[in-house]
Amino acid sequence: xxxxxxxxxxxxxxxxxxxxxxxxxxxxxxxxxxxxxxxxxxxxxxxxxxxxxxxxxxxxxxxxxxxxxxxxxxxxxxxxxxxxxxxxxxxxxxxxxxxxxxxxxxxxxxxxxxxxxxxxxxxxxxxxxxxxxxxxxxxxxxxxxxxxxxxxxxxxxxxxxxxxxxxxxxxxxxxxxxxxxxxxxxxxxxxxxxxxxxxxxxxxxxxxxxxxxxxxxxxxxxxxxxxxxxxxxxxxxxxx
Length: 240
Description:
Layout: E1 2-14, E2 20-21, E3 24-25, H1 33-43, H2 51-58, E4 61-68, E5 71-77, E6 91-107, H3 109-120, E7 140-147, H4 149-155, H5 162-168, E8 175-181, E9 191-199, E10 206-218, H6 232-239
Parallel strand pairs: 3-6
Antiparallel strand pairs: 1-6, 1-7, 2-3, 4-6, 4-8, 5-6, 8-10, 9-10
């Protein structure tokens, strides 16, 4: 069996663009494989042009669970040329605000153990898709041996903020959405996304297509393992 490294991706802002066109820079609704592999590569000190060291990371199987979808917001950016001072075109940049995700990578244990250690003392500071988006909390949720990506994404406790859990504790059905790489027998029913990293070199960034399956998992317990009872329930019942 393989090992799985789980990450908590949470911060005031995140932005996970699978593509950027001219002055419009969008974000996907969940972290991309390219973005998360880039985060891990930076923590391990892998330089942008080092495709040889990148390859084992890119070969890992990837999945993400949407614990708190957040809100998509748009920001306008202005800039001036560093030499001429001439105004550059106005750009639109999109972000996810107050989102929380559980991302997981599955692969060989020695590689994942090294990445787990790198996240505790990163060579380059991690960010959530863009340098302007730092994580709000430590990233590591743990390294599990002899398990599968699907199992970890189902079993990791619900990482949503307390206020979000209070607002959504009665929702139905009690499930979370998972986006994960397809297995060999699922390729016929999977979607494709061009975020399989081949090279992060600034002069020739390259990404290939990968197959993605959308699934749901039962809502797990809160991070502290306590029952999902909230004392504020009584107050809300009295006010309703």
